[in-house]
Amino acid sequence: MTSIPWPALTGTAAALCTTLSFVPQFFTMRKRGNAELSSVMLVMYLVGQVLWLTYGQMIGAMPLIAANALSFVIVCAVTFKKMATTRKSGLGPGRLRIAIDMDEVMADAVGEHIRRYNAAFGAALTVDQLRGWHLEDWVPRIQRDAVEALYDASFFAALDVVPGCQEVVRELAARHDVLVVTAAMDVPCSFDAKFRWLQRHFPFIPASQIVFCGDKGLIEADFLIDDRARHFERFKGRPLLFSAPHNADDTRYPRVNSWQEVREIFARLDGRKGLALRSERTRPLGVTT
Asked: Rounded to whole angstroms, how far apart are CA atoms 221 and 253?
């Protein structure tokens, strides 16, 4: 009875697994990009493949030579694809992807909401009175449905721009990839009004970089500037909490109180190059908390 060649089968299985392990990655990059694929890891893997290939030639082991030669070709293809994708996206050293919320960050939504509330109910509510509250939570329960009804298409069309926002966002867009990311699904009727508002006040941001979404954790960016801390829970980049009355007591995230502070933060980052800039993403920003 012929015995089963377990050593040969085991070696063949191992060679197939290691040789073909990068094939799924090659096709996954087409759907998910290459942000999570380490360049250092690829270089080390390629060096290892060359060393194994050289070792196989030294001892005359054809299976070892064939497996590592094929692995080398596959990993080279993955590496070249990563390089090509990076060049196409424009994300070179020192270039960041910055996601920016719209309401209460770019647009003065709370000011307009208070103005409408005061007009509708003959009140004299001020921004200072809302510290730690959203308007819909602060008003008497009997008024809440009416307050929510104030959010209509005309509401978003009439918003003022937050002071300093246009100038700073224009500067950032000249040096980085700026995305406007707004949770428009909270108020579905706002889509058209928000888009027209952005076209009017921020014409330098292309439509392809305006994102209407529900869950901002789906957005791939280096930074997210937002007034609502809930959007940071699943976001993989670095959060910057933009000060608003409702988040005044939140101390969980780095905070910016104005667009001038945003300008200063990215000016410091822009002053660093290459690896120094990349490592900065894992250190405290030194912003106000």
From this structure: 17
- CATH code: domain 97-107+161-280 is 3.40.50.1000
Classify the C-alpha dihedral 165-168-171-172 as positive or negative. Answer: negative
Residue for token digits 């719209």?
Answer: 102
The residues annotated with a catalytic role in the active site are 101, 103
The answer to whether the pTM exceeds 0.70 is no
Query: Which distant-in-sequence residues (6+ apart) come within 8 Å of 11 by Cβ?
Result: 63
Angle at 61 between CA 2 and CA 77, to 5 degrees: 110
- Confirm or reject CATH 1.20.1280.290 for domain 12-88, answering yes or no: yes
Most confident of 121-125, 134-138, 234-238, 280-284: 234-238
* 98 DSSP β-pair partners: 178, 223
Angle between helices 259-270 and 165-175 (to 10 degrees): 20
Per-residue pLDDT band at 106 (split at 50, 70, 90): very high
